[in-house]
Amino acid sequence: MNSGALETAAGKHPGNILIVDDVVETGEYFAEELRRYFEHVDTSSPERAEYLIGRGNFDALVTDLRFVGSRIDNGIELAQRLNGHCPPIVVLTASVSGKTLATITSQAIHTDGTPLVRGAMK
């Protein structure tokens, strides 16, 4: 399929993207950048994301790895709480230790049990 066929007349992809971050300014920054390429980009707190994804039709979820001051600890936990109703996920982090990456990798699974993360980039 021609990738141009996926674009609207304005040259943007018609996808619905949800950005989840506990820091409002960070979420808005990513939203502003993605709005250059996608028609619909929304931002959310971790708590509200569960509700929005349950009610919305999102094609992708872009989430921070760690949430500070939230009842949901991280983006992986958010995905697990969505019980298979989760769109494809992009997880962002500023830095990560080897131990944290190993923990993420061991927790990151599809609902069918296959790993989302197969290895780390070197």
Explain what the structure shows:
This protein has helices at residues 24-34, 46-55, 75-81, 98-107; strands spanning 13-20, 38-44, 60-64, 89-92. It has 122 residues and is of the alpha/beta class. It has a single domain (14-107), classed as 3-Layer(aba) Sandwich (Rossmann fold), CATH 3.40.50.2300. β3, α3 and β4 form a beta-alpha-beta unit. The protein starts with 12 loop residues before the first strand and ends in a 15-residue tail after the last helix. Mean pLDDT is 73; it is low at 1-5 and 117-122.
Keywords:
122 residues; alpha/beta; Rossmann fold; 4 helices; 4 strands; 31% helix; disordered N terminus; disordered C terminus
Number of domains: 1
By CATH reckoning, the class would read Alpha Beta
**Oligomer category:** single chain
Number of contiguous helices: 4
- Would you give the CATH topology? Rossmann fold
Helix content: 25-40%
The proportion of strand residues reads: 15-25%
Return the average pLDDT rounded to an integer. Answer: 73
The ordered H/E elements are EHEHEHEH
Shape: globular
Through-space gap between termini: 32 Å
Enumerate the strands of the largest sheet in spatial order, edge to edge or round the barrel.
Answer: 2-1-3-4
Gyration radius (Cα, Å) is 15 Å
What is the H level of CATH, i.e. the homologous superfamily?
Response regulator
